[in-house]
Amino acid sequence: MKRGKTPTIVTGTIGQDCHIVGIWIVTQALKRVGFNVHYLGGVVSQEEFIEAAIETNADAILISSSYGMARIDCEGMREKCIESGLKDIILYAGGTLIPDPEEWPQTKELFEKRLGFNRAFPPEIKPLQVIEALKEDLGKIHPSSECGTR
Question: Does residue 137 carry a catalytic annotation?
Answer without folding.
Answer: no
